[in-house]
Amino acid sequence: MHSPTQLQEIIENAIPKIVYPAHPADLYEPIRYIMSLGGKRIRPVMVLMATELFTDEINKALDVALAIETFHNFTLVHDDIMDNAPLRRGKQTVHEKWGSNNAILSGDVMMVESNKHLSKVDVSVLKPVLDTFNATAQGVCEGQQLDMEFETRDNVAIAEYLEMIRLKTAVLLGGAMKLGAIVGGADDKNAELLYQFGENLGVAFQLQDDILDVYGDPEKFGKQVGGDIISNKKTFLHLTAKELLNPEELSILLENRENAEMKVKAVTQLYNNYQVKELANLEMEKYLAKAYQALDGITVSENRKVYFRQLVKQIMEREN
After folding, report:
1. Judgement on whether residues 145 and 20 belong to the same structural domain of the protein
2. What is the 3-state secondary structure (H, E, C) of 14-27?
3. Which H helix or E strand runs over 92?
4. What is the 3-state composition of the chain as percent helix, strand, coil, each rounded to the nearest 5?
5. Count: domains in the chain
6. Which helix (H) or strand (E) holds 87?
7. Would 311 be classed as within a structural domain?
8. Are residues 112 and 19 in the same domain?
9. What is the DSSP string of 131-163?
10. How many Cβ atoms from other residues are within 10 Å of residue 263's Cβ?
């Protein structure tokens, strides 16, 4: 069995070996660039981990792992355009270096490249692999659309928010797990349990992200604390508070202030008064428990699941 770190090294070594056409350079160079920026490679690692639950031949899943990583980076390229983001992992975003039109086209080709990787799997599993990947990719796009729509809506419900983060973030983790399981030879039940494990872990991760945005240590969390409050982003904390606050307090939550630091302080105090952080933690723990329940149900020996439990700790035990 390989540790997540060892699998990450396998992914990192494989990415530079992907061969893209040389021309047109402005179409393919952005792909090489975004794929080389690093990251934790959690999603392709999850593919290989799921495969190794059922077979020691993890190389048979390497192209699927590369497909998932290529697709993930494609979504980042397009997300950065929509968000007008200047930086990605501390470097210039693709649209900043090559322009938005080039970035859109390069992202489109990355979707094609993902399918080219998937086409290399054994023909015996090609259809379920393509079906799972397509459902996953479509879900991610639906989640991104909902997220954009929420920006201009005043009546977003908590259940709608949870569905949005399930689609935008969690289905890709679930899909990565299920794809790895299919290639590894898992039966339908175990493949579905791995999907549930990844999806519920993804929702728990995003809820934790909401909490850390308010209560995290910026140096350890890696983001500006209170950014969601400043932008009035409809997170789980925001929507929960909106249901609990009286009209006067609600105006504090929703108003725009020139002094961002004062707004963060005032809204955080409201969250503290109504124990919003505790409510968010309870919701996060609920999804984490569902993930563990799915993992427990997978019919392989416990010693083969050890690294899965380590992965959960790695993902969820971020500093706050």
Report:
1. yes
2. HHHHCCCCCCCHHH
3. strand 91-92
4. 75, 0, 20
5. 2
6. strand 87-88
7. yes
8. yes
9. HHHHHHHHHHHHHHHHHHHHTT-S---HHHHHH
10. 19
- Residue pair 69/35 in contact (Cβ under 8 Å)? The answer is yes
Residue 68: CB atoms within 10 A of its CB come to 31
Residue 168 covered by a domain: no
pLDDT (tens digit, 9 = 90+) per residue, 135-155?
A: 999 999 999 999 999 999 989
On whether the CB atoms of residues 53 and 298 are closer than 8 A, the answer is yes
Question: Is the domain of 149 the same as that of 284?
Answer: no
Q: Are residues 202 and 296 in the same domain?
A: yes
Query: Tell me, what's the pLDDT at 258?
Result: 76
Q: Quick one: residue 156, left, alpha or beta (phi over 0 = left, psi -120 to 50 = alpha)?
A: beta
Pair (138, 9) in one structural domain = yes
Q: By residue range, what is the domain housing residue 273?
A: 187-320
Read off the pTM. 0.93
* Same domain for 2 and 148: yes
User: Which amino acid is residue 299, in one-letter code?
Assistant: T
By residue count, the chain amounts to 320
The single-letter code of the amino acid at 315 is: I
